[in-house]
Amino acid sequence: MNKQNTHVAVIGGGCAGLSAAAALVEQGIQVTLFEASSQLGGRARTVAVENNSLMHLLDNGQHILLGAYHETLSLLKKVGIKEQDAILRLPLQINMQTVFANSAFSLKSASYLPAPLNLLVGLLFSNGLSFSERIAAIKLMYKLRRTQYQLSKDIPLVQFLLFNDQTEKLTEMLWEPLCLAALNTPIEIASTRIFLNVLKDSFSGNKRNSDLLLPRQDLSQIISHPVANYIRANGRTIMLNRRVRRLVEVPNGFNLETKDGVQFFSHVIIAVSPVRVEKLVVELPKLKRVWEQTQAYAFQPIYTIYLQYPQDIQLPSVISGLNGMTGQWIFDRGQLCGQKGLIAVIISATGLHQKMGQDALALTVAQELHHAYPMLPKPLWHKVIAEKRATFSCTSDLARPTNKTAQPGLFIAGDYTYADYPATIEGAVRSGIRCAKLLLNS
């Protein structure tokens, strides 16, 4: 391709759009990024909450990354973020706390051993499961390794686990929490193939792939701001509050219309959510199949309940799972990022909590936590952030569009286009990088 005659419009400033733009900028391509809102980052963004005249910066959802998220880590390194400053890296550990103030299940990988022995030994010496259940889990992991985590046919994960002798308790304590954390989709409908892809990346190769990576700062400071600074520092343009109203094919490229008028671009990368694709491609008949696929998507919510306690409150660990409670994961943000006394509780996927008002939900979660952690007093304030369409439902055999489209010069990025992964930051970043590579080779 002729770089001098190439000017790429990236529509959407989430992780997919930012990673695509950064990859193109690195290769000397002229790029203009359009973001409809006033803030970059998509779902990985900061929310400002005021309480008693004090401003608190919160993530729109408490995120967990994995050591296997190599493209995300490479992107952060490229834009000048030091992992040790921005991320807390923990060897895989799961502790399922009950409402009765005890642990129902605990697992800690043997970090002194290489993968996959670190996990297998961790399973063997885990607490809360019978010996036969631990052996069943180890047998399944061995089988997956032997078959290279491949399936002849995708099925719902709950069926796969039943076929492989995983008991109800083993599923409840281990596989279901991992599924919700990775796919944000109920285990009854979640794709086994995608779940196994995540397991393969996490438990193959370097043992650090299974580490839990917890952001020490809000994600705007870790991802969107540094990537945007990198793009601008290389002389490229980011346009905020610029919703694309119309996209039309013209000779040798596309006309893109915003409130500022019409601009010509040789190539376009659409990096918006699935629900917005149709409006952008309505005048591009070659993309009819793409928007038909995206219009058929179902979505899953993520609720984050922030509870502020006195500053001297500290949980026994930075992260724990919650068993038999409304919440699923609990994070001590005081230990994690210096927000003393602030606790974040995550609820993934659909459930009864969606029928509750936000104040009632926060009260229920606070009461459950008081039983699980008796030293917790009544919270000083709370904030519920509900992302009702946080991710697409990662169901079995879900038809997903490819990054390369039938429209020459136009590519689609987004976690929903990276067919090997669920809706994660890593999937979004990989899709953006793949679009950039396809464009450069076109």
List keywords for this structure.
442 residues; FAD/NAD(P)-binding domain; Polyamine Oxidase, Chain A, domain 2; 3 domains; seven-stranded mixed beta sheet; five-stranded parallel beta sheet; 14 helices; 34% helix
Can you tell me about this structure?
A seven-stranded mixed sheet has the order 8-7-16-17-18-15-19, sandwiched between helices. Strands 10-2-1-14-20 form a five-stranded parallel sheet. Strands 5-9-6 form a three-stranded antiparallel sheet. With 442 residues, the chain is α/β, with parallel strands linked by helices. A hairpin with a 2-residue loop joins strand 12 and strand 13 (261-265). It contains 14 helices and 20 strands. Helix 2 (70-78) packs across helix 14 (425-440).
- The CATH superfamily of the largest domain is identified as FAD/NAD(P)-binding domain
Sheet/helix structural class: alpha/beta
Calculate the terminal CA-CA distance, rounded to whole Å.
7 Å
Tell me, briefly, the overall form. globular
